[in-house]
Design brief:
There is one protein chain. This protein is mainly beta and 564 residues long. Helix content is 8%, strand content 38%. It contains six helices and 36 strands. The strands form eight sheets. A six-stranded mixed beta sheet has the order 12-13-14-15-19-20. Strands 1-26-24-23-22 form a five-stranded antiparallel beta sheet, with no helix packed on it. Strands 3, 4, 5, 6 and 7 form a five-stranded antiparallel beta sheet that branches. Helix 5 packs antiparallel against helix 6. It starts with a helix and ends in an 8-residue tail after the last helix. 46% of the residues are buried.
Length: 564
């Protein structure tokens, strides 16, 4: 059944790749960034947040339809390099191979690149003996110094469902989704069959960058490291993982068997229900893997700190749901900015979902979707945003603020951009010594060009990033002020027509409690007045209480003024 479905997808998509990609919005056009020189690209990662024309790309090098090696290449100004790394991989079916890439948040300093791939058994290259997450170091020429970060030891002659998407969260932790490895015969916690055995797959794993397990994981109390490392479980397989940086929450797509692909909001301890539940619990879905029985939440294996939640959206007929991305870019108009785009593999479509006000659900105006299930082709297409995109194996916002789509079987990388792009300023802010969350920290941007001044009041996202439209092209002086930190100024910020600029700043002088851009008696008095309380304004270092540490910071920086 797996092979039949795979070949059906491949046959369909080989036809689709010969047809032009479309976007169902006249404000946008599609451009091809890489049209040749790649073999089954699956994911991309930019080397520099200020340069959209320099990125790594993963390849599956195949014989027939199955991968035999994985390669990492570098694309610079549209030119594809020779392989920077070649890794032998298992090759039982098209789901094997080099599957995931993520760069360390400090990549430009340490060169760390995280790769995930399926490793073959020594006696049979078609069998996946293990799945491996390995950290390499990019030395400017090649990837060297491999260090094993996480390994899943499962040997199966019919192996699939490896997942592979890797993301660094706003918390600095490394998240990777790994499917159930198509290993359903053992009774295991992760597939909701027993409380006593561990599979070692079928979930989202949360790790420190060195592969150790964070002490605040939801199941850190459990004696087995394979459960300690879990952030979420009960996941059949997934090709989509993305953080909504306006909330810091993690979303994932999940592939069903012969019914119910899903989109889930995965908070710590999430149990998605596989293999007993796919789609909404109330639907009592019956399929071969659950013995054609209509299980309910009461039948799941619930670890301490686990919870079940219905999908935020489902497709009754699977679409091969794949990549997921949030449009976190000022290139997009207000009706699209920060909304959700999802790719797939069966029909070659992109889908656009509007977020609700609290960003914990999708918002639908058509009554047919109020049950959060696309029960027919017509209902599925209510959210269609583009056609003929083939297998959308990766969707990301690039440094330029445009949307990039990797079309796996077409061997192409596209971008979607406005016909008339607005000029934007992107950036990232670090706050020295700050212990709180960056999410929603007040940000003021003051832009000066010639005799004109514009003030933009906004907020940082969970990564400390921002993206804002500017009045037009030209040479700007930009002053950045965040919370109780003194402002920092950057001169000579040049933005070309329809272009962008990128600022990366560290603010290191805190204590401006009253926000007048000078640290003086007024700030000191406020800290003393609020001493011992949880005042948000006088809690200078963001640790949740106004105490000696805040007082010392104000005294240390006393008399300092911002650059605004």
């Amino acid at each position: 059944m797996v092979k039949t479905l795979c070949w059906a997808i491949i046959a369909t998509l080989l036809i689709l790749t010969s047809v032009a990609q479309t976007i169902d919005d006249s404000r946008f056009i599609r451009e091809t960034v890489v049209s040749s020189g790649l073999s089954r690209p699956i994911m991309i990662a930019w080397l520099d947040p200020a340069n959209p024309n320099d990125f790594f790309v993963l390849e599956k090098v195949v014989q027939g339809s199955n991968p035999v090696v994985g390669r990492v290449r570098r694309v610079t100004n549209g030119t594809v390099s020779g392989p920077l790394l070649t890794i032998p991989v298992s090759s039982a079916n098209w789901e094997h191979g080099l599957l995931g890439i993520e760069l360390d948040p400090n990549f430009r300093e340490n060169g760390y690149v995280y790769l995930y791939y399926t490793e073959s058994a020594s006696d049979n290259p078609t069998i996946s003996q293990r799945s491996r997450l390995v950290r390499y170091r990019f030395n400017g020429v090649e990837l060297v110094d491999p260090v094993s970060i996480w390994t899943v030891n499962i040997r199966s002659s019919v192996s699939a469902h490896f997942g592979g998407v890797i993301r660094f969260g706003p918390d600095g932790k490394l998240y990777i989704v790994i499917g159930d490895h198509f290993n359903l015969s053992p009774s295991a916690i992760e597939i909701n069959k027993t409380m006593s055995s561990v599979l070692g797959a079928g979930g989202i794993y949360r790790l420190n960058p060195d592969g150790s397990i964070p002490a605040d994981n939801p199941f850190a109390y459990y004696p087995d490291n394979r459960i300690k490392a879990l952030y979420a479980y009960g996941i059949r397989n997934s090709f989509g993982l993305a953080f909504d940086s306006l909330t810091g929450w993690l979303w994932c797509t999940e592939n069903g068997p012969n019914m119910y692909d899903e989109v889930n909001l995965a908070l710590p301890g999430f149990n998605s229900g596989w293999l007993k539940i796919m789609g909404p619990d109330s639907r009592d879905a019956r399929y071969g893997e659950n013995g054609n029985y209509g299980y309910g939440v009461e039948n799941l294996v619930m670890l301490q700190n686990a919870y079940y939640d219905d999908p935020r959206f489902s497709w009754l007929t699977p679409i091969g749901v794949a990549a997921i991305c949030f449009l976190r870019s000022a290139r997009f108009d207000a009706d699209l900015r920060d909304q959700c785009v999802i790719g797939e593999s069966v029909n070659g479509r992109l889908y656009l979902f509007q977020m609700n006000a609290t960003r914990n659900r999708f918002s639908f105006t058509d009554s047919r979707l109020q049950d959060l299930v696309a029960d027919s082709t017509d209902e599925r297409n209510l959210n269609s945003w583009g056609t003929n995109w083939g297998v959308a194996s990766d969707i990301k916002i690039g440094p330029d603020g445009y949307l990039y789509v990797v079309s796996h079987l077409a061997n192409r990388i596209h971008r979607i951009r406005p016909v008339d792009p607005p000029e934007i300023l992107n950036g990232k802010v670090s706050l020295a010594g700050y212990q709180g969350r960056l999410l929603n920290q007040p940000l003021r941007l003051t832009l000066r060009k010639d005799s004109e001044t514009q003030v933009i009041d906004t907020r940082l996202d969970a990564y400390g990033k921002f993206s804002e439209r500017v009045p037009g092209d030209g040479n700007y002086t930009v002053t950045v002020k965040v919370g109780n930190y003194l402002s920092v100024r950057r001169d000579g910020v040049t933005i070309d027509p329809q272009g962008f600029a990128y600022l990366e700043l560290t603010l290191d002088q805190a204590g401006d409690v009253n926000n007048d851009d000078v640290i003086d008696d007024a700030d000191l008095l406020q800290v003393l007045f609020d001493f011992g309380s949880a005042s948000s304004s006088a809690d200078v270092n963001g640790d949740g209480v106004v105490d000696d540490a805040d007082l010392l910071i104000v005294l240390f920086n006393f008399g300092a003024t911002g650059e605004g």
